[in-house]
Amino acid sequence: MAELDPHSDDYAALHYCLFQYAAEAVASLQEPGRFAHYTSAAVVMDIIQSEPLRRSLWLRNATEMNDFSEIEFGLDCLEETLKDQIIGDKFKKAVQQIDERMLNWISSALIAEAPRIKANTYLLSLAQHDIREQRNGILSMWRAYGGDANVCLILKPGPFVTEQTAYDVSLHPVSYGGLRDFRDEFSQMCDRLIERVDDLRAIDPDVVWFNIKRAIDFMVLSTKHPSFIEEKEWRVIYRPPDPPAVPDVPSKIVCVNGIVQKVFYLPMVNIPDQGVNGADLHEVLDRIIIGPTPNPPLVINAFVELLRQAGIEDAARRVVYCDVPLRR
Fold it and tell me: In whole angstroms, what separates CA 289 from the centre of its chain?
């Protein structure tokens, strides 16, 4: 919500009404909790070997996700929720009380947003990493990510969960409760909008509507089928503004698996005056788990050497091999 001062009452009102679910989930994260980023060995090698100021984590276009139907599932939940007469009427009541003009924007704006959500959203996928997975990770994630040479970066959560002003990205937990939970959260959002209607009426209606749409977009993008619950996924979400903001999340053109594409990226660099701390590789990296591979000692030794060359302390301690019996 770059339009508002993060310390203002207006910001607090919008945050309470629209982003409470994510805020409560972030607050529940506790040490020694970690995030896991499953990817290919080549990607991790590139991160480590890059110059310190060029190390980064990529946010890729949502259409490049492993299962593109994930977004379709969230959009279906939204459509069914808006069809529910009780919830639909409550939503209309809420926005009408804030600003009567919003009634004319509802149906056309939300459903018409679908193509833009698909084409103009960039994501970084993380998994909540429990202590019992400290060495082996999750079998389904090894199967799904990274190809034949899988690596998992275990990252400290601080840089992802601490409020910062450097990048207009949002961290959201994925919900696996299906349509029922989507309806419940949407209904609760409407209740909070009605509860704080007087506060919201005092805010620029364009800012309110922008954030309502944004909150709903995040719900769509953070909803997955219940069968994926084992992943415990969190998503760093970025929606590039139109026109582009300056400065903003940096981007570049890369080739991934033979597909030339634009990616946005988060530099692994501390920016203390904007609230970005602990993002440097030395600080954020807890360990590297080497996934199932035909020659574990060879890969382990290589990554230990890469970390040493990068000046990472305790390199040997930070690289472990999982013993998941997965054949490639």
Answer: 21
